[in-house]
Amino acid sequence: MATGRGRLLLQHWRGLQALHWPPGGVGAAPGLAGEAPGPAGFRKRPGTRYAGTATLKQCARRGRHYKQPSADHPASLESFIWIRIYSTAFSPKRSNWQVNSAEKTAVSMNLLSVEDKEAGYWKKEYITKQRASVKAALARVLKPVNPYTGLPVKTKETLSKTNIFSFSFSRLSGLGWVIILKEKNGKEYIMQHIDLLINDSSVTIIWYGRNWPQLATLSTLDLCGVTPVFMDRSKPPSKNGPRWLSLIAKYNLSNLTESTMIGWDRLIRIFCLHPGLLVGLWKREEELAFVMANLHFHHLVEKSTLGSATVPYELPPHTPLLDDNPEYGLHGYQLHVDMHSGGVFYLCGTFRNLFTKKGSIENGYVKLVVVRFKNNTEHLPLIGKVGLSWRTDLFSGCIKSCSIMDITLLDEYGKPFWCLSSPVCMRSSVPSDGPNFLGQTYCVDYVDSEGKVHVELVWIKETEEYFIVSLVLYLKIAKINHWFGTAY
Fold first, then answer.
1. Which one, 8, 264, 324, 470, has the greatest CB density within 10 A?
2. Separation CA 224–CA 310 (nearest Å)
3. Does residue 316 form part of some domain?
4. Is residue 314 in some structural domain?
5. Region class of 468: left (phi > 0), else alpha (psi between -120 and 50), else beta
């Protein structure tokens, strides 16, 4: 007697629709197959089914003649559907691969029998090969690098399109981001991003709504990139199809109100969690109002697509660059810094030929001076009224003296050395290099495991604008030694 699951699969199987795959199929891109993703590569969420049942009917194809298993054996029936999907996508006859007769014979032999393979084999094979195709497509898209920014030329173009890759890149269409809120009892809430702002060197992703879980029940927040498992160049991906999650960062929410509060207005308070996450809480209820993630372009596409739901994408191993004159110190560095919010830029500056001598080492950091307090020709203004814009479905506002800061530091070879995107705030301070003779002094500070940023600003009352009078980067010696293979 057929089980309920078997009858359901059989019903879907009888109603399978033809899917018009492009020449070459999903797997047309050559590339080595990566590790087989495990069950943690998928998550269930409202409106999305796990790979199987109804989702599969969109991806199987008529016209191939295999012996169909009985509905009395649902596992065999599911394998039968997956082998149809696999053979349609990766058949040598439909691909652009250059295959020899031995490879064709091997593929044909693999497709002869469903029963010869263990349960789940063809699903794993399809996903493994499809992930390898994505990786190969990414390598081609991200290969051209802008010599002025040190970042891939097509990153912004990639993120700005709904179908982000055309032609051979379309297998990455549907890239998005989700947050997974986890309660202390194990329950999860998955939320698709609501808004997206693409900046010059970073992306700002926003979530808001009325149905947040209570903050007191939450333990962690996972930030993940999300892409469809089944992709088709000829049409947008199905909203109800299974998705592949790639963990970007994990945050602890257990003691959120004890973390760094960087600003407030009459409705909300905002808290910063490293790396780059901003959480807004309603003042009255102390509950979630919005979440804002700030991600630098450097390796962003890879991080959003090539990890798994539990393990982030691992950067390729770094090969130390030759330091032709270690006694000379750092030289030929380039810094690009942006300060912005809500698509409005307060600062957009590039500083070239930065250098520091070996003797500029203090407390485990190398000091790289960008703007000098005593050289007023280097001072530069912030344009407009500085503030961090926020909104929900009901309210919006702007928190004064806060913004998003993006840092892109290139080494002497033009390669990204240190990149970040993070919320920051200006705080009142005492000037470090002399008396306060220009006006009220403020500072902006940022710290992570690779370095520190210290900015000093002066408020000019007559013109009602901030001027940057000092900008210094402090780079961890351990980072420099790792980068160049030195022993400072």
1. 470
2. 9
3. no
4. no
5. beta
